[in-house]
Amino acid sequence: MTSYALVNISHSASNKIKVCPAxxxxxxxxxxxYCSPACRQRLLDKLAVLTGLLQALRVRYATFSFxxxxxxxxxxxxxxxxxxxxxxxxxxxxxxxxxxxxxxxILGREWWREHNERNSRHQACxxxxxxxxxxxxxxxxxxxxxxxxxxxxxxxxxxxxxxRSQIAGKNAKASVKAAFRRQAMxxxxxxxxxxxxxxxxHSAYQELMxxxxxxxxxxxxxxxxxxxxxxxxxxxxxxxMRLAPGQPG
Length: 249
What we know:
Layout: E1 18-19, E2 26-27, H1 37-56, E3 59-66, E4 70-77, E5 83-89, H2 96-118, H3 121-129, E6 133-134, E7 145-150, H4 154-160, H5 164-167, H6 172-187, H7 195-213, E8 217-222, E9 227-229, E10 234-235
Antiparallel strand pairs: 1-2, 3-4, 3-9, 4-5, 5-6, 7-8, 9-10
């Protein structure tokens, strides 16, 4: 098995071009996260096949990511122990889902061959784990994170030029008021601004102030830049988050 340096996957090559987390293709996706629903489902189907192998190996958590050259599969087994990392060389002009299926089938056949020869699930698991590398990432980089984000209309945030982190902070009320004042100075009709735009600014201000009084949060689980297995199902990569500096993928 050929080993490659790990490279984090970036999901936004620029303000306009984004990378599909299912196939890695960079294109103008607009507000879409994936190239298409079919692209996302294609990878999910292959990850579902991989789940059978993970269950046989008694995997508690796992992450899957890819670079143009390599598939990266990190696994944490139930109990204590290292993170097992499989680095799999990608084939030219093939989708990550196709390479993933090859890797799953090869490892699966090896598991069954060892299981049938030794009549032992434990020995079959040990055989597969001997093919993995350890010490590349820590357990905390495989365990899914749980995050909370304000459940507000993105349009209101855009109109006031304010971020979700600002309205989720301790000074949310002051942040919203300051943002409103800045936009009001720019768009107030008495200051040669647009009456229509000012109405949108005022409406966004009212909506966000109402949210500050009665905040509602959306909870998300996963990891940025990686598909995450939580012991039951695969979770898409989180967006709007980044790994800490120096944290490998």
